Amino acid sequence: MHGLINRSIQNYFCANYGRELWADVASRAGLDFTEFEVMLTYPDHITPAVLDAVCAVLDRSRAEVMEDVGTFLVAQPGYGAVRRLLRFGGVSFGDFLQSLDDLPDRTRLALSELRLPWIELREDPDGQYSLICAAPLVGYGYLMMGVLRAMADDYGALVLLEHCGRAAGVETLKIILVEVDFSEGRSFELGARA
Q: What's the pTM?
């Protein structure tokens, strides 16, 4: 797993619960280090072990933790690059949803070594949406729920999200776009400020 993924989990945990408690997570996960390096690649078994340790230390479910990490990646001020990458998808939340299929490719343009699982947005006959997520890591759909919830707030949209389960390594989300202009969204400029 790419170090950026593991470091994001570490940053989420440390920002919310502190570095001292992170040492307990690293120990429970069987790590012989406490800091993930962003540009390294780690064996695939490490990320689930770290997530299991986080869940044990916090006494929370994988679903709750993954959704919180997804929200953290968008809403935390230090992750402005993630927000810009996502906002590049369109000027409205509806546009953003329609661009989700391209997210793994857009991510590779920014960081060629990072391979996100594929996702596919389907518009249902009733005007609702389904987001199909390849989920090699159990809970990836919940991470995407956190991202979608934070992005809806960012755009000022009112959405209802439901995780519909996991089957054969795929997780499905139901997205109901209740109101596009529910509140004033956060201001956004595509370019980063120097």
A: 0.89
